[in-house]
């Protein structure tokens, strides 16, 4: 199931005013009509070429045969259609041959394809992220040689960070890059969990690889970044003979089967030649350009995976008849659609509040990225602060929505006859990759909240207070503002408590960071629900038909989330603020 | 991974005093030593024959070939070893050729096999449950002909309730049973989701089938119960020619692949002959004998699925090295086992509190069943009250523990190289089958709490108060009693509010029943954790080594669950008590 056109319209135009981006010089070519046309084109293509093989490529995972990866042909066909429609270049600036779309729209378009088929979309997403990195930190020569085929979608990209012994702990990578006389480097090592790591569907693969140049500092300060093409690229940007990147094996995953995931050997049999990107030992900085975009991409992917499940469950609940209303005594009366049962509506509203809340969070962050591009330091600070929640919250709660979607289907949801079990499996990776959610919690508290003296948090609070003030003036929404205000305020002493502890015991301060990530994620999503409810409330008068239902649905979901879900984090936030040492001090032997 | 011998010993003997059961005339043959010997035999057999093919039978689901089900040979081998060891008869009384073990022990033994391989254990579990039903409501002739081969494990059993158009809504089944001149019945219809529904590994399959005799009342009062053997059974109990039960197809499931799940046709080509069990139109009563046992079995299966994941994650966390302690600046220092990270310990303690809490809940209920067998009306009322929570709570929270187990593994947990993803998939069915958790919520509130005038709840409260009183006398546990007492007390006005509403608006009273099921489940599990902590606290003096660690672990988990988890249900319980009509009154069009 795809996101609805009307919902995207509400989020992008009614709520985030994406059309105002075209007033900026960078995006003057992208007016509201052309944005809508791109969304419509993506919805059509996603349905015909991506959604159509999602179940099939799940049932037929990539095969490792004669040293090559065999993928279902539908994957290459879908990506060819995507390429022909220009989507590989949607984010690249006009001068690089791209469409130069604002990130708010790029995120939405990517989300549409991800919703239809997260696995196939993964090839395109990583290519765009890799191209962005080269554009950001590559030399002019590298940009000239690598960007055009990536923007055209003829060459794909990957991120090669993890190794078998170093997943979360990048400081411990062992891949070595020895300088060669010609200024290039010879790499040796192995890279693990490489999505899109090898296949035959693009003319070349541009691996962005972290490795250590001998003699550099130990740990994360000695990591350098390299372009390692699958096929050597000459001075004119032509791909030639194979480089020494060897496919050692495929990982057999729980989900997203269509996106091949590889163990790669570098320099195993033949030399593996790479080009340094940026300064030596400064590779993490460059990689984090890609990583931050990847984290927001993970959030969007998670939101959209949940969204697909929610839409499937909603359709099923309207169709499937089972049981009768409470109090109906006539056993011969016809069965009712299960959406008529209050508990089914509760499940669906809960799922809606999670998935549409997740998508709103991601698109709000995307809009901040556009604002930051135009020079807003506040927007940059806010997106940095929000990124750990954008990554983690949807991967926890849209996943829960996927589980709800199975539950709504009953036994049918446990079978391959319906998409909901696949979507649940696919979404489970998002709490793990691109930095586990535990790492996001450390990032939020340690780097984003404590390190900057609370400046970004104060800026975020100002925005929350503006929403609260507006909501207090709306009789229907004022109770929601009253419910949210004290809970937002409770974040302050909690963060302060951690800050005080950090002076003497950083380990204790960070030990329960996950509780804060979770509670603050709920508070942020509650704020964005209230803000959307304000937008919906203002648009109510004159609305009718499906538009009216959509607006009422946003308001109902805001009510639900703030009254039913937000208060469940009161206790965890208090526990965080109390700096409970229970888990930190636990003797592992008693587990 | 299997449950540990020491943990089972703590639960069964330190806490539940299962050895006192041997003082009862029914169980005089089962002293503590023989019980322990059975547990040890089950642990050995489960590891060698069940755990050994769990991953393999997941990767090689049953095939439908030439009208027959093909299963991996390891499944039949394991069940043959189980049969040879006498486990098929563990619950059957001595006079029926069984071992006549108390249910507390039967549940534990079943749990061991389920923990090792829930799919293969499913064949045995359903056979035992079907035999119990025949013993309970079958005629003497039926018992004589059907029970011996089931107790020996030569014939297997199934439950045939659902149909394609009637899953949760049994009142709407369409299978018809026409009376024949010889007193038997000819059945016609189809049955869906039939676990162990057809295969070649037992000499016969005894289907227990719900169907309607024409002319009976509409709805659930017109449902009758039939024995429908796969092969006809003559007057001497010999299996002969095939009956008209046809395998129409297999369901392709998310998990528990080894237990085949079928769509069966009755009377499609040849006559399908059944024998009425009990009185006409009174089939649901009989089936609920089996269903109540099945619901407790679901709880144990869910608890054990989570338990297996938790043990796997614990082992991985002690082994896998990644990262360094907070504050360790030496990048060349060795990486530490991930269990040294506070957030990993938090995840593991959370999982432990869920899975060991689930198992305690299930075994407590099992002990009540034994007490009820010896004539305690209070025990029967308590087990009836607890059953919806026994079924639902582990299927929600032990499943969450399975997700945590994946998270602890990081990317490795997302692959088939480790068991945790399989265990997560397998456990997802438990919130659905044998009555969805939504149906359990209606049962708890409508039938168990409101219908009996609060008597069973008062009996349960008396037991909770006894635990609270004892805990208040233990300095270390008194704070936990103080945290639990008001929360238990809060259940009373919440249930009263629903009771008041039920007089005028039953639909509203039941609409948010899930919130009560969830909150009361937490309160019950918190009580049982406190009760276990008391047991552990009393045993501390003199304990050392692994025994001391186990006792300290129980106390730590009680602290964690009551301080960190229980308060998260304060808000949902208040929402339930407020009779919020939001979901009940929601227009489906706004979803």
Q: How many domains make up the 3D coordinates of chain A?
A: 3
* Reported CATH architecture of the largest domain in chain A: Orthogonal Bundle
For the residues shown, what is the average pLDDT of chain A?
96
The CATH class of the largest domain in chain A turns out to be Mainly Alpha
For the record, what is the CATH homologous superfamily label of the largest domain in chain A? Acyl-CoA dehydrogenase/oxidase, N-terminal domain
Radius of gyration of chain A, whole Å: 24 Å
What is the share of helical residues of chain A? 55-70%
Largest interface: A-B, 104 and 104 residues
CATH topology of the largest domain in chain A: Butyryl-Coa Dehydrogenase, subunit A, domain 1
Q: Which residues of chain A sit in consecutive blocks of at least 5 with pLDDT less than 50?
A: none
Fold blueprint:
2 copies of one chain form a homodimer.
Chain A: H1 5-15, H2 32-50, H3 54-59, E1 63-65, E2 68-70, H4 73-84, H5 103-116, H6 118-137, H7 140-152, E3 155-160, E4 176-179, E5 185-195, E6 204-212, E7 223-229, E8 231-233, E9 239-242, E10 245-250, E11 261-266, E12 272-277, H8 283-319, H9 342-373, H10 377-409, H11 420-427, H12 437-450, H13 455-472, H14 478-504, H15 506-511, H16 513-539, H17 545-565, H18 570-577
Parallel strand pairs in A: 3-6
Antiparallel strand pairs in A: 1-2, 4-5, 5-11, 5-12, 6-7, 7-12, 8-9, 10-11
